[in-house]
């Protein structure tokens, strides 16, 4: 589909793409067929605090920044009200959340999962993983479960990517500050992989969706086992170096494994590069970084979730909208949101830290704000 604004700025798959490997080009919203007033009004709403603690809004269209704004929140004062002990997995600690150690690197939380899935795709492309139907437990010969079950041995890499592992797991019915969460318990354990493998099976693999951060940790171990590199190093060589991402931090578990489920820190501009890669079907310049069909099957192999508004595929959320369109959503605790709208050539990034009994940014609303701002009928 080719989309043209009234000022004759067009986007579409047949037009040459800009590759922001070194830096993003900045231009006006109107020059790219976007309504600046609509974007500014939404930004003002975010800045007001009415939608919680929001840190920033960044909108890319046609490979150029057309809107960017950061907002300030007093997380130090908020932390003092909690009377909790500082620490890497204390989500109130302002040395770790939302910014890393007083830098501009923002926590990505579960957006990290989408990067982990990309690493699996690259490893398949490189021939280091034989395919998505391979049984993932075949790579865990050094581990034994305290709850042995033949169904666990049938779990495929695809089952893990789509969160249909069958593992009994609950991190969705309570906040991440609740100690009963399986995710919180995993993060407090000395061996995250052992914790995940020790959980009983509730279903056969592939039968039922259940959001499971521990499943993503299995992928971290898988990358290490199949490539000989820690996930952080593998992503650096095969993804970050290609995209020009040099400033980042990634947490590691007590066993030294990359925290694949939520430990990545990036700047919004660099996160947008990753979304731009998916917008272009895994291609960056002349290089096919992801398998040629990876983004396509991320869409096509979607599974139903507990929400009628969201599907899930390969560690991305999928938001069907309009006439058979689908937006990709990378989403993380506290309001990390990256929305990729291929039909409109838009990548939108929002960061925040809504863990203080505040609802996180509504992804569906944010998506529709972008769609409405791109409506040429609104262009003044």
Which CATH class of the largest domain is shown?
Alpha Beta
Beta strand %: 15-25%
Strand order of the largest sheet: 3-5-4-16-15-14-13-12-11
CATH topology of the largest domain: Beta-lactamase
Which of globular, elongated, flat, extended, rod-shaped describes the shape? Answer: globular
What is the C-alpha radius of gyration, as a whole number of Å?
20 Å
Tell me the number of strands.
Answer: 16
Q: How are helices and strands ordered from N to C?
A: EEEHEEHEHHHHHHHEEHEEHEEEEEEH
Number of helical elements: 12
> What ranges have pLDDT less than 50 throughout 5 or more consecutive residues?
1-14
- The CATH superfamily of the largest domain turns out to be DD-peptidase/beta-lactamase superfamily
Cα end-to-end separation: 24 Å
The name of the CATH architecture of the largest domain is: 3-Layer(aba) Sandwich
Helical residues, percent: 25-40%
Query: Helix/strand/pairing class, anyone?
Result: alpha+beta
Mean pLDDT across all residues, rounded? 93
Q: What composes the largest sheet? A: 9 strands, mixed
How many domains, in number, for the residues?
2
Describe the structure.
The radius of gyration is 20 Å and the shape is globular. By secondary structure, the chain is α+β, with helices and mostly antiparallel strands. The strands form four sheets. It has a nine-stranded mixed beta sheet, sandwiched between helices. It folds into two domains: 1-82 and 322-380, no CATH class; 101-267 and 282-293, DD-peptidase/beta-lactamase superfamily (Beta-lactamase, 3-Layer(aba) Sandwich). Helices cover 30% and strands 17% of the residues. It has twelve helices and 16 strands. A hairpin with a 6-residue loop joins strand 11 and strand 12.
